[in-house]
TrEMBL record:
Keywords: Methyltransferase, Transferase. SUPFAM superfamilies: S-adenosyl-L-methionine-dependent methyltransferases. The keyword Transmembrane helix does not apply. InterPro entries: Ppm1/Ppm2/Tcmp, SAM-dependent_MTases_sf, TcmP-like. The keyword Transferase applies. This is Methyltransferase. One of its GO terms (biological process) is methylation.
Length: 277
């Protein structure tokens, strides 16, 4: 068998291995939330101690499944749209949803893109950009004349609050036909992460400065006149059976509002009142 490829990352870039591992573990179940055979093959090819992550979590497969569905919805209406994956890591979204005409752009820090290039091949419709999502220079390389979906899974919580706001407002300014899918963590989780008190198995997450509790997600619309919250959902919605008791407790607003992370879909366009003015 060919030798496994060693991968050495630290800090936030290392989290790409955790999300990859969780998708691979889920994919090998007889009833997976997400089928990701490419993730399974990547894990088999990487020389890394994945055992530190424990037995696997369903949060990352759920996030990938929901974001896939949202992306497919856009591609059903705009087959030539562009999907820009911010903090792409070893995401395999392109392999799961490619319709043959969509364009894909994967953006991440240089060390993460260097790993990605070892497992994913660029094509005319699938490009990679080594840059920080906070550096607006990369936006010049994205065609704003066509609909664009920005995907940021497991990314924004690692930024400072002012940086998150600046990024979303810049995207709203630059891409009037754009939309965005991302996840947010609750305040208590952010606070614990900054004390080094949250993790998976023996792995401790890097600090996560930005948080937004479920009831406050609509406040995003106050950030910019083009930001419209289209959908918000907690991680148990549609998957309650897999969560067991937690899935049903999340139906209680006080518990959901305080403790659950949220999946958010926004679009960048003026609302009806603004459009009429």
């Amino acid at each position: 068998m060919p030798a496994k490829a060693p991968v050495e990352l630290e800090g936030v870039p290392e989290t790409l291995l955790l999300t990859l591992y969780n998708r691979a573990i889920e994919s090998q179940r007889p009833d997976p939330i997400l089928r990701d055979d490419l993730a399974v093959r990547m894990v088999e090819q990487i020389d890394y101690d994945f055992s530190q992550f424990g037995d696997g979590r369903i949060t990352h497969p759920i996030r990938a499944k929901v974001f896939d569905d949202w992306a497919r919805d856009i591609l059903a209406r705009h087959p030539d749209a562009t999907i820009v994956n911010l903090g792409a890591g070893l995401s395999t979204m392109h392999a799961r949803i490619d319709n043959g005409t969509a364009r894909f752009v994967d953006l991440d820090l240089p060390e993460a893109i260097a790993v990605r290039r070892r497992f994913v091949e660029e094509t005319d419709r699938h490009r990679m950009i080594a840059a920080s999502a906070l550096d607006p220079a990369w936006m010049d390389r994205i065609d704003s004349d066509h609909p664009v979906l920005f995907v940021a899974g497991g990314l924004l919580m690692y930024f400072e609050p002012d940086d998150v706001r600046r990024l979303l407002c810049t995207l709203a300014d630059r891409f009037p036909r754009g939309a965005m899918a991302f996840d947010v963590i609750p305040t208590w989780f952010s606070q614990r992460s900054q004390k080094g008190a949250v993790g998976a198995g023996d792995y401790a997450f890097p600090p996560m400065p930005w948080a937004l509790d479920y009831p406050r997600v609509p406040e995003l619309e106050t950030w910019h006149p083009r930001i419209e919250v289209v959908e918000r959902r907690d991680y148990t919605q549609g998957f309650r059976g897999r969560w067991g008791l937690i899935g049903w407790l999340a139906l209680m607003p006080p518990l959901r509002n305080r403790f659950m992370s949220t999946l958010v879909r926004i679009q960048f366009q003026a609302n009806q009142q603004q459009a009429a003015s």
